[in-house]
Amino acid sequence: MVAALTVGGVLLVPRPASTDAAFMDQEVAVGGALTAAKVARPTGASCTVQTLNILLVDVFQSVTVTWTSPYPLADQILIVANGTQSGQVPGTSITQTGSTFKAVLTTGVLQTLLSNLLGGTSTLTLAHRLPGTDWTSSTLSYTLKIGGLLGLTGPSSCTLTP
């Protein structure tokens, strides 16, 4: 009896209806345009070295980097690199006034990021991240030269990298 009901139930189930839908239909978009978001590059940037003159020797104290950006503080990227070492400047070391950002990198901050500040050349790289994504802008870089022994063996400078 169970078998008869099962066979009867299967016979009563409607068969699928055929449709005209096909996955091979060609669709053509008419009008419109496809554009990609572009993350703005930092602008209005400058880099200034602060030294302290001790007995006619300019001793490196810090470097100040300023720039403008339409993006919030959380999406600012400032990386310091020296040889194989690099580190991102923490947001706590960056201040914001309107759309202008400023990072003052003292010898202490640079030494924390690079663990070696006996002189040499470092690269400071600025970029923006598009809020809510991992997309970043093209970069803007500066070359920071610190005279050896914190500036005791030569002048320190910070220049835009072409």
What do you see in this structure?
Helices cover 14% and strands 41% of the residues. The mean pLDDT is 80. The chain is built from three helices and nine strands; from the N terminus they run αββββββαββαβ. The protein has a domain of 112 residues: Sandwich (Immunoglobulin-like), CATH 2.60.40.10. The chain is mostly beta strands and 162 residues long.
Task: Give me the secondary-structure topology.
Blueprint: H1 2-12, E1 43-54, E2 57-68, E3 76-82, E4 85-88, E5 94-97, E6 100-106, H2 107-114, E7 120-128, E8 140-146, H3 148-151, E9 157-160
Antiparallel strand pairs: 1-2, 2-6, 3-4, 3-7, 5-6, 7-8, 8-9
Question: In brief, what are we looking at here?
Answer:
By secondary structure, the chain is mainly beta. Helices cover 14% and strands 41% of the residues.
In CATH, the topology of the domain at 43-154 is named: Immunoglobulin-like
Number of helices: 3
Helix content: 10-25%
Going by CATH, what is the homologous superfamily of the domain at 43-154?
Immunoglobulins
Distance between the termini: 89 Å
Rg over alpha carbons:
30 Å
Structural class: mainly beta
Shape: elongated
Briefly, what CATH class of the domain at 43-154?
Answer: Mainly Beta
Notable features of this structure?
five-stranded antiparallel sheet; 3 helices; four-stranded antiparallel sheet; Immunoglobulin-like; 162 residues; mainly beta
